[in-house]
Amino acid sequence: MDVWVYAEQRNGELMSVAAELLGEGYRLSREIGDRKVCAVLVGGNVSHLIDELYAYGADKVYILEDPLLEKYTTDGYTKVIANAISEYKPEIFLFGATHIGRDLAPRIAARIDTGLTADSTSLAIDEQDKTLIQIKPAFGGNLMAKIICPVKRPQMTTVRPGVMKKKERDDQHKGELIKVPCNLDSSDINVEVVEVVITAKEQAFSADADIICAGGRGIGGTEGFEMLEQLAQKVGGVVGATRAATDAGWIDAACLIGQTGTTIKPKIYFACGISGAIQHVVGIEKSDIIIAINNDPDALIFSVADYGIVGDYKEIIPEIIAQWNLEG
Amino acid sequence: MKIIVCAKQVPDTTEVKIDKVKNTLIRDSAPSIMNYEDENALEEALRIKEQFPDSYITVISMGPPQAKDMLEECIAQGADEAILISDRELVGSDTWATSNVLAAGIRKLSGFDLILTGRQAIDGDTAQVGPQLAEKLGIPQVTYVKEVTVNDNEIIAKRTLENGYETLKLKTPCLLTVTRELNQPRYMTIKGIYNVKNQEIKVWNIKDINVDLTEVGLDASPTKVVESFVPTSKGKGTVIEADSAKEKVAILLEKLKEKHI
């Protein structure tokens, strides 16, 4: 009856969202009362991550190790995790809304016949019946929906990276380790992973960055993004983009922020040439300070920005680069 | 090759307006369109048919009667057959129930090699129905597909990751969910538009696909939407007024300093 968190790792490295979900899972488990938060760690050889999971608050770590789980496959991971759910019966199971989490969670939910909420942005425990209340955007972020799963268990949801708060890392904190047998056979896996290609450019985008310099349709092309890159270097941040800019091919799709992209909460968010469509705004509204630069004084972005500058970004950004004197 | 394309008619979410008093969508405010990534799925099916001309493309959709319009467009683009599963009892189905409906409809067809569908629909953005359908049909899946190569019964798919991609190999029958990167959908052809007149869109109800209310519809759905509301925005901030870009930026940095950023 515990709260489970999928501790997604890639290539033996823990994804940041795993620690975020442990933080949230910890909060939820205590809100239900007397429950544990447990990390589910799956892979070929991943035991080096156990201490990190304890440090981020895991009371228990369920480890599912098998050479056949070295690379992520829907088939292999679904089978071993679904079996673990049937064995240990968690109350709640949280997955990061990564490309892998969004591949795996629905397959598992279908196998064990439970409900799955997509990409929750906020979670809470109902005071009366202790069920999980899940809030998620719908209709392109124009509406928020409150969703429950009253009967089936576990209550499952994917959660966007960057939304939940990690607990402060405590390397002294230890928990209980449970080794789960996998009973996996190569005939269980029907998809062969031929290669995994990591492109260096895409790795540069980090949802954890303190400062994000983002551009939208108004940036007009790749040259504008080069200017944003210079700004990012000056202020110690990273470059992000709206769907209009990634669809136009001005910048890599991995930099997409907002609905269906990454949700962020930096200290400073520069929105340059961004109109402020609701799909984008839902991804940035948790930023501490939003600074909008747009030559259209009626742009919607000004209604969510803390500070707005009406003007051509090609004039404003070089000024910021020239005058920037704040500590990172 | 027998190809099934699963498509959904959706409100154009870039156009939708919200009734801020009732906290609901004003349905008539947005045109109904074919979900973008489903267009890419159909386009890929058409390209595979160009490669293997004896292929047969069936488009299947669950939705209200007016979704026939979308299916007629699919015929006009070159699909061979289109089926709408439509029944009042299906209203309120979540993704678990929806995948039951599509799986039941597909089982009624005479087999398939490949199912193509959009990664997610723009109204719910769940990306769940593809994988759930694959599970219920007991076939392998690849999601987020940006490139497909078909060699007889072997599929090679490139799947996007946040920081790259992976190349996967699998055998048919299988299901792929595709992204907009995959291809550029074509327009309807004159011949296709002519075909619409000769090609009746089949409409099936829940009896036709042999499902009951323990599997489909609002009551059977494990998840329930209990409330919807309009997201709150942060509230309007300050627009910095000054004569030059230089002065505006100076004021901005002064304000940031005051905030101890």
What strand order characterises the main sheet of chain A?
7-11-6-1-4-5-12
Beta-strand residue percentage of chain B: 25-35%
Percent of residues in helices of chain B comes to: 25-40%
Oligomer: heterodimer
Strand order of the largest sheet of chain B: 11-10-9-12-8-1-6-7-13
Give me the Rg of chain A, rounded.
Answer: 21 Å
| CATH domain topology of the largest domain in chain A | Rossmann fold
Number of strands of chain A: 18
Level-2 CATH architecture of chain B: 3-Layer(aba) Sandwich
Flag low-confidence runs of chain B. Answer: none
Overall 3D shape of chain A: globular
Task: Outline the low-pLDDT stretches of chain A.
Answer: none
**Form type of chain B:** globular
Q: What fold name stands as the CATH topology of chain B?
A: Rossmann fold
Q: How many DSSP H or I helices of chain B?
A: 6
What composes the largest sheet of chain B? Answer: 9 strands, mixed
Nearest-integer average pLDDT of chain A:
91
Q: Please, what is the CATH homologous superfamily of the largest domain in chain A?
A: HUPs
Structural class designation of chain A:
alpha/beta
What's the short story on this structure?
The complex is a heterodimer of chains A (328) and B (261). Chain A is α/β, with parallel strands linked by helices and 328 residues long. Chain A folds into two domains: 3-188, HUPs (Rossmann fold, 3-Layer(aba) Sandwich); 200-323, 3-Layer(aba) Sandwich (Rossmann fold), CATH 3.40.50.1220.
